[in-house]
Design a protein that fits this description.
By secondary structure, the protein is mainly alpha-helical. Helix content is about 65%, strand content about 5%. It is built from 12 helices and 4 strands; from the N terminus they run βαβββααααααααααα. Strands 2-1-3-4 form a 4-stranded mixed beta sheet, with helices on one face. β3 and β4 form a beta hairpin. α4 crosses α6.
Length: about 325
């Protein structure tokens, strides 16, 4: 009887199977390795053994770090790196370290330090996704961790714009290097994805897909067209059902919104049309009076009543 694997991950959105970097890494590696996996999306990491995601469950085994999850799967003969040479395995480690040092701080800044992104998008999303009272706890916790990271990277710098430029610059250089390394290949070591592809996908996919108000770094990624194709290729080959469900849901929401807008607009439109008709009629009538097109004729006795009275009064005065 084959082993049963279950992976608890942060829930997805925007066509992503998960919004979390570490969860995306574990998901992609498992998919590349052919693991018969049941995925359990959740928005409550508090229920996990150590309050973090992802968590792999297999029988009585519970593993809750990406490194240990990959090692556990390799022990069960599930690996995406079976064809890599020792030199290529060393390259995986080197690139993993590089993106963690160069791109990860920029993502933390974008999500949790950038005031516009945090207030307008990130915090509202987590507030909606997490149950009360965790929707107050976790965003604040992640924000503090991100700010602590910025302080450790720039201990003597108080100007936030300098920090932003610094993390963006390092991330952009790293993405340019990754783009050059990938070239025209489908994946970083040829035609089959490996753990390196899982790592890089987990960093680039959220940056590409999440519609943040401040999209400066996203624009740089979009300029690296082969990296965009790389992310799209993995999403379509291994998580296509997620993307289709998201597009279907988005289309349904747009249709409902258009229906609501039309219902709201209809009585107002009718009211405006009626009022416009009344005002136009009054304006035309007033114009017609002013130029003499329309006259109001009085009865003869009404026309003579005033002057006759005046003449009688005049004769009485003469007498």
């Amino acid at each position: 009887m084959s082993e049963s694997f279950q992976l608890d991950v942060w829930k997805g959105d925007w066509g992503l199977p998960s919004v979390d970097i570490y969860c995306l890494n574990a998901l992609a590696y498992a998919k590349f390795s052919g693991v018969p996996l049941k995925i359990n999306p959740t928005s409550n990491p508090f229920r996990t053994p150590n309050g973090v995601l992802p968590v792999l469950r297999c029988g009585n085994e519970i593993i809750d770090s990406v490194k240990d999850i990959k090692a556990f799967l390799r022990q069960r003969n599930y690996t995406a790196d079976c064809k890599l040479t020792p030199k290529q395995c060393a390259e995986v480690v080197a690139y993993d370290t590089m993106v963690k040092e160069k791109i990860y701080p920029a993502l933390q800044y974008i999500w949790w330090v950038d005031v516009g992104n945090y207030n307008e998008f990130i915090r509202p999303w987590y507030a909606k996704a997490l149950p009360f009272p965790l929707n107050f706890y976790y965003p604040g916790r992640y924000e503090r961790q991100a700010k602590a990271m910025m302080e450790s990277l720039y201990p003597t710098e108080d100007e936030i714009s300098v920090i932003e430029n610094g993390v963006y610059s390092e991330a952009q250089k790293c993405m340019t290097l990754l783009s050059t390394r990938l070239g025209e290949s489908d994946f970083f070591f040829g035609s089959h994805p490996t753990s390196l592809d899982a790592i890089i996908y987990s960093y680039l996919a959220p940056l590409l897909k999440i519609p943040l108000p401040n999209s400066a770094l996203q624009n740089h990624l979009k300029a690296c067209t082969n990296l965009v194709k790389f992310v799209t290729r993995i999403s379509q080959r291994y998580f296509d059902n997620v993307g289709q469900e998201y597009e279907k849901k988005k289309a349904e929401e747009n249709a409902k919104k258009l229906h609501r807008d039309s219902e709201t607009e209809f009585p107002n439109r009718r009211r405006n049309q009626v009022l416009a008709g009344i005002f136009a009629t009054l304006a035309m009538v007033g114009y017609a009076f002013s130029i003499g097109i329309v006259e109001v004729k009085l009865e003869d006795n009404q026309m003579l009543e005033g002057p006759t009275d005046y003449m009688l009064d005049a004769r009485n005065e003469d007498e």
